[in-house]
Amino acid sequence: MLKVKEIFDLGTKMGVAADPRGPKGVQKYLDRVKKQYDSLKKEDKEFFDVEKLTNPFPDGFIHVDDGKTQVKRVMAGIDVNEGEILLASQLNERGKKIDLVIAHHPEGKGLSNLHEVMEMYTDVYPQYGVPVHIAERLTDERIREVGRGTHPINHFQTIDIAKHLGINFINTHTITDNLVDKFMKEYLEKNNPETVGEIIDCLMLLPEYQYAKKNGFGPKIVAGAPNHRVGKMMIEMTGGTNPSAKVYQQFSQFGISTIVGMHMREDAIKNASDSQLNIVIAGHMSSDSLGMNLFLDELEKHGIEIVPCGGLIRVSRVKKGKK
Ligand SMILES: [Fe+2]
Predict the structure, then answer these.
(1) 288: CA distance to ligand 1 center in Å?
(2) For residue 40, how far is its CA from the centre of ligand 1 (angstroms)?
(3) Same-domain check for residues 153 and 194
(4) Out of 64, 100, 186, 195, which residue is the most buried by the measure of CB atoms under 10 Å away?
(5) At residue 75, does pLDDT exceed 80?
């Protein structure tokens, strides 16, 4: 049995281990945050969220924690809104005690800080041959754009309800996006598809994508064709949200041929296609579910029951007897 903070810390540890920057890259990020904090004037320091000094993923936080619950049952969803929190409360009243609600997508300050996690692109793109000055400029532009987009949202509405109802609540986001990103890289490297169509075949062996296809949101090739060669492949499943649409031209120029992502904006698909890239969209809810499942399986191994909600396609990979 684990407490809420132990569950969040376990997720963070898993997210760091799977991070495309590597644990050293994550530490460098935290060192930069500390430097930024240290350079602030005394009067500005009180407005700095000190949790950011130790939390390497500013789009995931503990939102409500009574500090004492030993978690036996978790309700987990991709999107947790007011309805899911009320559902948890209803289940509590009916004797099915929900000890913790875990959302994937950001809530509260996880949402208002979402853009900050995107700086990982600056470290990741040079790994694929894009010069750092291009990675940095395009990432900075996009960070400002996403920051402006999330700024006016009502970030704390769902958290307010969870507080009133005494429902423990956390969200993961980049923690579990890192898990699916690493999983997919290793899975596709192992299966070594020669054509873009074979990438779809590989995805379709995974139950999350089978469920998605049956329900109308299966993997798709949105640029290129099934018979195209894969060439150098890039997995785009972590980093906060979609990057700048301008990066696809750079990827193509610096040697990437095929991108496998969760979702992509129309302007990005057009740029990618104009740059002759092959693009496979694995699917948003299915890929987010896969990442969450890899984390939730660890909780299951600790004896915690998982109640799926909010669009989560729950698939357990825990071998029987290991629970
Ligand atoms: Fe997502």
Answers:
(1) 6
(2) 33
(3) no
(4) 100
(5) yes
